[in-house]
Amino acid sequence: MVKVIDLPDRELLYGHKACPGCAAGTIARLILKVTGERTFLAYPASCLSTVTSIYPQMAFAVPSFTAPFPATGAVLSGMAAAVKAKRMQDVTVLGMAGDGGTADIGLQALSGAVERGDKIFYVCYDNEAYMNTGVQRSSLTPFGATTTTSPAGKRGVKKNMFEILIAHRIPYCATASIAHTADFLAKVEKARNTDGPSFLHVLAPCPTGWGFPSDQTMAIGRLAVETGLWFLAEYEGGRVKMNLAPKNFKPVQEYLGLQKRFKHLGAAEWALIEGQRDREWADMRRKWGF
Amino acid sequence: MSNEAWEGRRAFISANDAVSYAVRLCRPEVIAAYPITPQTSVVEKLSEFIAGGGMDCQFINVESEHSAMAAVMGAAMMGCRTFTASSSQGLMYMCEMLHYVSGSRFPVVMMNANRTLAAPWNIYGDHRDSLAMRDAGWLQVYVENAQEALDTVLQAYRVAEDAAVRTPAMVCLDGFVLTHTYEIVNIPGQREVDAFLPPYAPGENVLDLANPRSLCISVAPEWQTEFRCQQQAAMEAAKGAIARADGDFAAAFGRRWGGMVEEYRCEDADYVLLGMGSVMGTTRLVVDKLRAEGLKAGLMKIRFFRPFPREEIAALGRRVKGIGVIDRDVSFGNAGALYTEAKAALYSAGGASPHTVNFIAGLSGRDITKEHIETMYRKVMNAAAGGAEREIQFAGLRWEEW
């Protein structure tokens, strides 16, 4: 298993222009430390493209390109086919897309690539809104969060990408958090070693879009898991394993209260969110037996 | 099926099959496609070739046309020769991707089975689909028959992959009238094709582990104009590459299609019809009939719509009295696309311009008959003689006498 101490010093993402405290930048940087120099990378029009690849300043040190917004899954399929055609060995075909590029406009192409069984590693860094265009709601924005297009707070719940991918009977998929780094890196390693498609859904706290100080990214990421509003699980060999199942959750307001996007919520909404959380966990325990 | 069974033979096949054999002979490494009538038999045939072991190629069954073009772009980026095919609504769905591929300079070759656009929904042929993609930055070539379809695919790879061009190419075939019509076709031998079309050399425009680069990047206003200027220069360079490919092809295979345009009986013509695709075959017969009557008729087949044959049309304009343009499309609120551009080319001819009439015809698979075409010539003659003719006319309209 990959250990933090063994990660190479060499940076394959360096000199990008992301906001201070951006989890997406750290996620991309750490993933590349695991997948290494023999990585072909595609990322759609997103925060990640905007902060890394505006000509002539290129921040990725692996062969990479900006994919069309809806097409990350499909370009990865083309690259995987090229790897076969060129008979390349020991390479990773990696995609990194945000929540909008994955769960909304890119869902069809992702579904197609996974159904075909193409050997690709797809990462969704989930900052829970269209951050690159200025914080608009996506289908992965959680209940109650304000965005510029849900100013009164989003109605409706966050789409469950983990279960959507399980429904494809994908060889490997997992959820992760940047704040649980060892778990995250272990999943990156498993995903890249999977013979077939793999998917990793990483929660990526966003100081700018969520409204918290830029030195609190890790603390917020940890609280998301400790309050039970995010979960760490993996699906492998047809079974789900819950990597962390807290016996007692912290009160949701400890997470919600630190972020401007939830500041309009009060005790009634916290209770509502806790109720949703408890039903989700009861459902997961029943289905996956942990 | 081993190549020997059909290589270098004459075969009775559809133009879709002719395209499939041509693609096979070009040795693409990755094909991604999504089915749509009347393109389907091309991708079926190619799937069959690959499944039968006769073609060493990765075939990706994508879930949409957008993904088809995205997948071939991913493969082209890795240095592969690629192919896809579509039509009509599918081409519309690819639209975003067409711009991505041309802007990042990957020489993808695709076939478009020309079919009209909904609504009203219809699966039959006209040029409204590909002409709507006029500004997508692709080379566009229209063919007249199955042999030309096969030969043009071979030439399209040569031109698209030319180091001075590096621009994708769309080979356009009239839906059904070409795609599903059987003709005698000469299928070249693999060795001859290999000599004509060397393996794809992507130069620096490739994802390379030994020399990592970011491709298809974002470009700010300070640089974007220079990128666009290079695309325009590549299109102009394509004109020379098209002529060279036509010449080399003639030397290798003994057939010549004319490059940018083909003129038929234009040497001393006074009245010329311009058009694209299969209608030019019928027009030849009408030219012969009118010539037999002593009328100086001719035709100019526009093969490449992009790059546009400005110089050829301007030169024609300097020596004829009347020009009619057949458009299997209409840009609502103006005129046919070919007419608009041909007229602009005539403006730069210098001196007096000939009289021009635009005939909107053959929409959604409506037949363009010899009688229609003869009427077009007579209308052009009438206009050239100073008679009253509406500039833009729908040929064979139900509520008009034609």
Task: Tell the overall outline of chain A.
Answer: globular
From the alpha carbons, calculate the radius of gyration of chain B and give it in angstroms: 21 Å
Mean of pLDDT of chain A: 97
Please report the total strand number of chain B as a whole number.
Answer: 17
Work out the radius of gyration of chain A.
Answer: 18 Å
Write the CATH architecture name of chain A. 3-Layer(aba) Sandwich
How is the secondary structure organized here?
The complex is a heterodimer of chains A (290) and B (402).
Chain A lengths: L22 H13 L3 E6 L2 H6 E3 L1 E2 L5 E4 L4 H14 L6 E6 L1 H6 L2 H10 L4 E6 L34 H7 L4 E6 L3 H12 L5 E6 L3 H5 L5 H10 L5 E5 L2 E6 L8 H4 L10 H22 L2
Parallel strand pairs in A: 1-4, 1-5, 5-6, 6-8, 7-8
Antiparallel strand pairs in A: 2-3, 7-9, 9-10
Chain B lengths: L9 E5 H11 L4 E4 L6 H12 L6 E4 L3 H13 L4 E5 L1 H16 L5 E6 L13 H5 L6 E4 L3 H16 L7 E6 L7 E5 L3 H7 L17 E2 L2 E2 L1 H33 L7 E4 L6 E5 L3 H14 L4 E6 L1 E3 L3 H8 L4 E6 L9 H11 L7 E6 L9 H15 L7 E3 L8
Parallel strand pairs in B: 2-3, 2-4, 4-5, 5-7, 6-7, 12-13, 12-15, 15-16, 16-17
Antiparallel strand pairs in B: 1-8, 6-14, 11-13
Helix pairs in contact in B: 1-2, 1-6, 3-4, 6-8, 9-12, 10-11
